[in-house]
Amino acid sequence: MTTKGALVAYGTKDGATAGIAEQIGRTLREDGLEAVVLPADGHRGARLRAPAPAPRPLNPQRRNAMSHTGEWKTRVYLFEEDRTTKVRVELDTGTTKLTGHGTAHCNPADADVPEIGDELAAARAMEDLSAQLKRLAQGDMEAAETRP
Prior knowledge:
Layout: E1 5-10, H1 18-30, E2 34-39, E3 73-81, E4 84-92, E5 97-105, H2 114-144
Parallel strand pairs: 1-2
Antiparallel strand pairs: 3-4, 4-5
């Protein structure tokens, strides 16, 4: 399967354009495209992920159910290298699997506090995952002809 998307590379030595590149990546993802954001010297081997799944048929037995209990599994993976933290969040609902990505860069003028990078990158990955989940729900609502 071919995935349409973009590699957004930034090239300043101190990471000043990283935030702009991350915003471009978020905007592309919100528009349904895959976006990988990396420093220009780290682009080799970058791969695009599959897009968020298309709306799926809803379970007719649950359509009118008033109560529901379920369990979704989430895994958070953190990677840090050269003052850059990358996070991947995987969500498995039992019927759908989604993956969110986030990155945080430590400004060279700041103290290197890994926990801050972890928190920012994880928050950005969860925002990415949230946007995908909202798009999926919107598609499901349209398929079920309901409104938010």
